[in-house]
Write a structure and sequence with these properties.
about 575 residues; alpha+beta; Glycosyltransferase; four-stranded antiparallel beta sheet; 19 helices; about 40% helix; about 10% strand; binds alpha-D-glucopyranose; Glyco_hydro_100; 6-hairpin_glycosidase_sf
């Protein structure tokens, strides 16, 4: 639905993003605009493996950068319009999409160099990238480790650049770590738990490399990373899509690894909701920030990992049961999320008028949310058109905060319906100053202040208002925004955000995060040369140049789970 098909006759050349390789000849004589495409074209884009960037790509995989002379403003508008039929945009679109807009920016080469400096080797093989290469910082803490979640944008950058080996090595190495016995004090963790991070120790005397890993037993707060296993599965699919190499995912140990991760989440117990219950700080926001319970980030990653696993698990004796449970869970999870986590103007108005203390199946206000608990800021923040998945839903509690990662992953995994995806993008545009400001992108909005900050964070000096996890701006999120923009047919939003990032990232030394309402200040305690800030930028650039990369990190709508939910007024024009 969102991509261009090229048919016959044209010559082109292109380079790898790090400027090292040039590739072949092609012919083009006509293109068909996005509006002429159907779902089938989208599914082909998302389904197609990309062996690597150097192989001869088929016509319909070609990048916009290869079409500079033919892609006019008109066809670009068509492209945008696919998921936003109402016309739109407070954001300036480029007058034309010419070749220059895809010429490598001077900081691209610098970014590749900086990324390569972070490579970690185990017995001569690259197995990951450290979290930050910040020599100036007095305290290394654990930023010299390979974090599973931090490695994802690095991995995508390498895949997109035709270097899948490091990703394969990483997947196999972390799989081995999963097999370790994991204990916090005297308490054993589930078999499927994946590490938050690991470190390679080099013994120059014995010429031996060994690994230490952290499953939460050393982490600040002692929380196990629920997101690691999900990212691992998502990355395994990205590798498979990108290379076309099915043999890795089909290996018995990878099949077992997936099953073990999901067994942790699919067990039946006291749960009355299909969402996954978890502790505060078990994902990217790894400190106490009121993200316990059913945080959107985990639910969206859970949904995506389930769908990725479904596409890779074998229907054999061991896989069959797992597949069945995944299917049932997906069905219930998508219904729950789309119904209860979704907020737009109409829904907000409904909650505002909720009755409370309703008993029995006929209750409208199922979780007994008290309208007085709706925070004031949301009434100004909610645009007439637009919406998002809120931060958390549990009995008598709705966390209305907007979280970037969860909403972008909801778009990429198609947890969001096409209408909801459009609405999420509409909201980002409508609240550009709040969410993007001067540096993309707010991790969460708004910040928690004063008394609430004391209670919620436990007086955390790192998470003061508009800093770090508490309303800070994280450049790494640029790749997620870009992917979501491409999937919803709105690349100009990503372009705008990338332009902003480019004015400062290199100059500022690739900070981990920025502070302030507009993200103007380099974060109070931000690391410099934070690897995922560098890799996130590169991935965003490469995706915008060649949107067919999106296939490795996005899933099309699951037709079987098409929603029965009525459109609310903010989705209409
Ligand atoms: C911080 C972030 C976490 C990240 C880690 C390494 O703890 O909150 O998400 O994985 O740094 O960069």
């Amino acid at each position: 639905m969102f991509w261009l098909t090229i048919r016959s006759g044209f010559t082109f050349q292109t380079k790898k993003m790090d400027g090292t390789k040039v590739m072949g000849l092609r012919n083009v004589s006509s293109i068909c605009s996005l509006s002429e495409m159907d779902d089938h074209d989208l599914s082909r884009l998302l389904d197609k493996p990309r062996l690597n960037i150097e192989r001869q790509r088929s016509f319909d995989e070609r990048s916009l950068s290869e079409l500079p002379m033919i892609l006019t403003r008109g066809s670009y508008d068509n492209y945008e319009g696919m998921h936003s039929p109402c016309g739109r945009s407070g954001i300036d679109t480029p007058a034309s999409w010419d070749r220059n807009s895809f010429d490598p920016h001077p900081i691209v080469a610098e970014a590749w160099e900086a990324l390569r400096r972070t490579l970690v080797y185990f017995r001569g093989q690259p197995v990951g990238t450290i979290a930050a290469y910040d020599h100036a910082s007095e305290e290394v803490l654990n930023y010299d480790q390979v974090f599973v979640r931090d490695f994802v944008p690095s991995a995508l950058a390498f895949l997109m650049n035709g270097e899948p080996e490091i990703v394969k090595n990483f997947l196999l190495k972390t799989l081995q770590l999963q097999g370790w016995e994991k204990k916090v004090d005297r308490f054993k963790l589930g078999e499927g738990a994946m590490p938050a991070s690991f470190k390679v120790l080099h013994d120059p005397v014995r010429k031996l490399d060994t690994i230490i890993a952290d499953f939460g037993e050393s982490a600040i707060g002692r929380v196990a990373p629920v997101d690691s296993g999900f990212w691992w599965i998502i990355l395994l699919r990205a590798y498979t899509k990108s290379t076309g190499d099915l043999s890795l995912a089909e290996r018995p140990e990878c099949q077992k690894g997936m099953r073990l991760i999901l067994t942790l989440c699919l067990a039946e117990g006291f749960d009355t909701f299909p969402t996954l219950l978890c502790a505060d700080g078990c994902s990217m926001i790894d400190r106490r920030m009121d993200v316990y319970g059913y945080p959107i980030e985990i639910q969206a990653l859970f949904y995506m990992a389930l769908r990725c696993a479904l596409s890779m698990l074998k229907q054999d004796a061991e896989g069959k049961d797992c597949i069945e449970r995944i299917e049932k869970r997906l069905h219930a999870l998508s219904y729950h999320m789309r119904s209860y986590f979704w907020l737009d103007f109409q829904q907000l108005n409904d909650i505002y008028r909720y009755k409370t203390e309703e008993y029995s199946h006929t209750a409208v206000n199922k979780f007994n949310v008290i309208p007085d608990s709706i925070p004031d800021w949301i009434f100004d923040f909610m645009p007439t058109r637009g919406g998002y998945f809120i931060g958390n839903v549990s009995p008598a509690r709705m966390d209305f905060r907007w979280f970037c990662l969860g909403n972008c992953i909801a778009i990429l995994s198609s947890l969001a319906t096409p209408e909801q995806s459009v609405a999420i993008m509409d909201l980002i545009e409508a609240r550009w100053d709040e969410l993007v400001g001067e540096m993309p992108l707010k991790i969460a909005y708004p910040a928690i202040e004063k008394h609430e900050w004391r209670i919620v964070t436990g007086c955390d000096p790192k998470n003061t208002r508009w800093s770090y996890h508490n309303g800070g701006s994280w450049p790494v999120l640029l790749w997620l925004l870009t992917a979501a923009c491409i999937k919803t047919g709105r690349p100009q939003i990503a372009r705008q955000a990338i332009d902003l990032a480019e004015t400062r990232l290199l100059k500022d030394g690739w900070p981990e995060y920025y502070d302030g309402k507009l993200g103007r200040f380099i974060g109070k305690q931000a690391r410099k040369y934070q690897t995922w800030s560098i890799a996130g930028y590169l991935v965003a650039k490469m995706m915008l140049e060649d949107p067919s990369h999106l296939g490795m990190i996005a899933l099309e709508e699951d037709k079987q789970r098409k929603p029965m939910i009525k459109r609310s007024s903010s989705w209409n024009c």
